[in-house]
Amino acid sequence: GHYEVPLTHPGRDRERGRLWRITPPGGVENLAMPGDVAGLVRELGSGNLTRRTLALNELCDVSGAAAVAPLKAALATPANALQKANALWALSRLDGLAPATLIAAMKDADALVRTHALRLARDWCAAQSEPAKNAALATARAALNDPDAIAARCAAEVLGASPSPENFRPLLALLRRAPADDDHLIHATRIALRDQLRAPKISAGLSLDGLSADDLRPLLDIMLAVPGEETALLRFALFEKVEVPADLLAKQLPSLAKNLPADRLDALTALARRRLSTDLDAQAAVLQSVLDALAQRSTAPGDALRAWGGEVATALFAAKENSTGWTATNLDGTPTAQPMWAVQERACADGQTAQLISSFPHGETRTGVLRSAAFALDGTLRFYLCGHDGEPPKPAGKKNFVRLCDAADNRVLRETAPPRNDTAQRIEWALEEFKGRTGYLEITDGDAGPAYAWLALGRFKPELPALVFADRANGPSHKILAADLARTLKLTALAPPLTAYFAERKNDGISRAAAARALIALYGEDIAKPAFLAPFAAALASADEPDALREKLATALGEIKSPSVCQRVADALPTASAKLQQAFATALSANRCGTLVLITAIEAGKASTAVLRDKATVDRLLATAAEDERARLRELLKKLPPANTAADQLIATRRAAFDPAKANAARGAEIFTRNCAVCHAIDGQGAAIGPQLDGIGGRGPDRLLEDLLDPSRNVDRAFRLLVVTKRDGSVVSGVFRREEGAQLVLADLAAQEIPIAKTDIAERRETETSLMPPTFGETLPAAELSDLLAYLLSKRVNQ
């Protein structure tokens, strides 16, 4: 090959290559010729893999039955272990392998022969009589104790393929004694145990009584990968009798809620309430899992569950969010008004990936400081750090750094800057000289630039409690959890604190939106009364409120089938930006009341006709409108320019502006992570709401720009928008995810799942509309769109 020229070089010769012939000293000995069975059998012992493989295939595919007797003779007096192992494979392919011969080979003195015999036995057992199969499985169980780790792993794979109650305890014993650094043996044994548990007859007959804590923890972890009532009942019976560690129980209970029979959910609730009384987050997770399980079965929560939910929601609402001691502030020390820090998975220099505290996910332009709780200083502190401090190759801006400060006088004891690398590098600070003192970690992102302005760190050693970061950006906050519980369980007692929380504008906008949604549900039909509606309508119309809050308020109010409520949403349209107008229009199109006021508002000039360029909104309006309203809508649509004219102009403009020499694919990868990964995946990173995009670069720049700027132009049927009209007249739209029990589950633009009870569905209609918003031309500057395009073009199948 022409390795002097990089594979990606445009001048690389892609039509010619070099052929090499390598001859050992003394030349090449003569190979056995086709038809020479004795010679081919001899070649099975060759030290050259290619030669013995060619000989094996020639014997099996050409010589056939004539090779059986010579193979058996070679097996009786083999030249070496290679010949014996390959003779076993050849006889197996020619149906000439006797059970006794294979079982004897599984016990052979040579580890290579034992390994190949066990690999053969994995699929061979399925075609044998019960006596032969049982004899082979008994031999495989004995082989779990083989001193050769590969042979033991192959034995585990044999048992995994043939589940039996007798396999369970020997496999568990192998898992217990497997060396901690033998990942292959551990993984194969875990898979084999999982496959035993997947067989309902085996799970139903097992007992976990008498197992040690060292056995239970890995076994229960495996059971999380085994759905079904049998393993759920098995685990639940154990938890009711044995006091397992709280962290282990908390991890198991959500899975049990999804798999236990409905008549055991009350008992599960009682168990969780009793055993997790000191772990509020774990209680909330289990409670939500039980509620989800009930919703899938169309079962209403009982009084005991409502009572527990009230206790948990009240405690969540009163709890401090940052229970681990981290404090986020602006650069000047004032409290932050919006989230700045989150957990993000990043690659590390040692080849691992890790969840790191990062300032990247919420946008590189944000700045702030994150401080840990105090901890004792001693020995060393190690962690991994990545990120940037200004655009390379310019000098570092000295705005981003990590410091260790003295808790007594705030003096800086250690400081390091991000390595200007996306891959986290290992940092180690010696702290012996500070023994006996306490300190805290301070992470500063002071760079407000749009790129190369972030840092991330984690994997702290030692694993100090003060450095555990609870990421409320990756999971709902306590206030959001409390509000959602209040809404689901109709906890009217929480209405006063929710009202007070919503009214306080310094609180986080997303949490306030959750409080508003809960209150709207609690008010029920009373929400249409001016006294109840007024604070929400005021926030909706206020340009001083965060856009995220206003958008979520509109969505919540749009679900209310009340002309007065929908009118208040429409009243906020004149003060909303184009992006917000589109969100308000989407919310109003969810029911007939909203459809009427939206059409009227557009006719009156209070909302732009541009909102009708969103085909998804038009589809929803057509689904809810009466015939006369459809006629009015058609008149409005006539006033729009041709459907693709604006998109075609934008595509042409962006195509002319795209210069591959100036675009930056590395920045484009970051833009993809921020804007696209919530729905799409590349190289296994991202979500699976929309199509996965491996190899997308093969489409070329013109088609890619069409997909980015006019996504509904070409929509794969698997990802078209599904419009569901409910029996109460409301409309829900999203991408089909799955049917789960009594529910249909859709996914919306934010990758949030929308469960709909099938009994509530009046009509479901597939459209030719993409869930992807047609707003990238407005939300992404031309330079960022070029960077994103460069990144996507770099992702080709054969790059």
What would you note in describing this structure?
There is one protein chain. The protein is an alpha+beta fold and 799 residues long. It contains 32 helices and 18 strands. The radius of gyration is 33 Å and the shape is globular. The mean pLDDT is 88.
Helix and strand topology:
Elements: H1 37-43, H2 49-63, H3 68-76, H4 81-93, H5 99-105, H6 111-124, H7 130-143, H8 149-161, H9 168-177, H10 183-197, H11 200-205, H12 213-223, H13 229-241, H14 246-259, H15 265-275, H16 280-296, H17 303-318, E1 327-329, E2 342-347, E3 353-358, E4 368-371, E5 375-376, E6 380-387, E7 400-406, E8 412-416, E9 421-430, E10 438-445, E11 455-461, H18 478-489, H19 495-503, H20 509-523, H21 530-541, H22 547-558, H23 563-571, H24 578-588, H25 592-603, H26 615-624, H27 627-638, H28 645-657, H29 665-675, E12 681-682, E13 685-686, H30 700-709, E14 720-726, E15 731-740, E16 743-747, E17 753-757, E18 761-770, H31 776-779, H32 782-793
Antiparallel strand pairs: 1-4, 2-3, 3-11, 4-10, 5-10, 6-9, 6-11, 7-8, 7-10, 12-13, 14-15, 14-18, 15-16, 16-17
Helix pairs in contact: 1-2, 2-4, 3-4, 4-6, 5-7, 6-8, 7-8, 8-10, 9-10, 10-12, 13-14, 14-15, 14-16, 15-16, 16-17, 16-18, 17-18, 18-20, 19-20, 20-22, 21-22, 21-23, 22-24, 23-25, 25-27, 28-30, 29-32
